[in-house]
Write a structure and sequence with these properties.
It is built from six helices and 18 strands. The protein is an alpha+beta fold and 261 residues long. It has an 18-stranded mixed sheet that branches.
Length: 261
């Protein structure tokens, strides 16, 4: 089985968010996919099988399967467009979040995702304790999004992981208005054994939606201010959907030689 390591939301190797992509002829047992994801120890490993109506895509962290992952979807589309479907510019994935379409536009891969419903919640002392700074606003959907006063606060933040795990949401995101971009953010998923996700596409279904309302614009240029860093180009489509685009680059191709169940 071929496995590709792709850095997503960047055009430079060893930056952005790395994902492993496994392209298979048929599905192995779930236990095998979990073991491969644990062995890779990346925030996500994607598994793809071609079916009659397109491709079936699943995402695994080192500890569990997840419902949606942006950077591993981008990485998966990069692999298919460049190694399996070179003549295509549109690929459709069947996933746990429904049908997801990715369109290749020059160097960008444009993903069409559902917008996550979210609502404002009270800022708590637990949030201040976890982040070391009190947020000015908190929004809760699938993930928690905490809004801060400045970009510098986001870049310099050093959250306490065990306290993050006590906050609501699948993950905890921090964001602020940017100076050179519309917003900067960082994403943390301690319960999924991902202390910091370098560039989280799915989190921007909430983050970009929030800043679209705050800034009064449908297009949001976001920057994930992790050590690896990455750019996301988001557009609110007005139908409960959002497009999130980014670049990607190949780092490695390998063979998984262990026997799968």
């Amino acid at each position: 089985m071929k496995q590709y390591i792709v850095d997503a939301f960047t055009d430079k190797p060893f930056s952005g968010n790395p994902a492993a992509v496994c392209v298979m002829e048929k599905w192995p047992e779930e236990e095998s996919m979990m073991k491969i994801a644990m062995e890779n120890n990346l925030s996500e490993t994607a598994f793809i099988v071609k079916e009659e109506q397109g491709y079936h895509l699943r995402w695994f962290t080192p500890v569990s399967e997840v419902d949606l992952c942006g950077h591993a979807t981008l990485a998966s589309s990069f692999v298919l467009f460049n190694y399996f479907e070179k003549d295509k510019d549109v690929i459709e994935f069947d996933t746990r979040s429904g049908k997801l379409t990715v369109v290749r536009k020059d160097n960008l891969y444009e993903m069409n995702f559902p917008i996550c419903e979210q609502h404002e919640v009270p800022v708590t002392n637990d949030m201040e304790s976890a982040f070391g700074i009190r947020p000015v606003k908190a929004i809760l959907g699938i993930d928690l999004v905490c809004v801060f006063e400045s970009e510098d606060q986001i870049r310099e933040m050093n959250p306490i992981q065990n306290k993050l795990a006590l906050l609501p949401g699948r993950g905890q995101n921090v964001t602020a208005k940017g100076t050179d971009v519309d917003c900067v953010s960082r994403s943390f998923f301690p319960e999924l054994m991902v202390p910091e996700d370098p560039v989280c596409g799915s989190a921007h279904c909430q983050i970009a939606d929030y800043w679209s309302g705050e800034l009064g614009k449908n297009t949001i240029h976001a920057y994930q201010a992790s050590k690896r860093g990455g750019h996301l180009y988001c557009e609110l489509l007005g139908n409960g959907r959002i497009s999130i685009s980014g670049e990607a680059t190949l780092v490695a191709i390998s063979d998984v030689v262990a026997e799968l169940l």
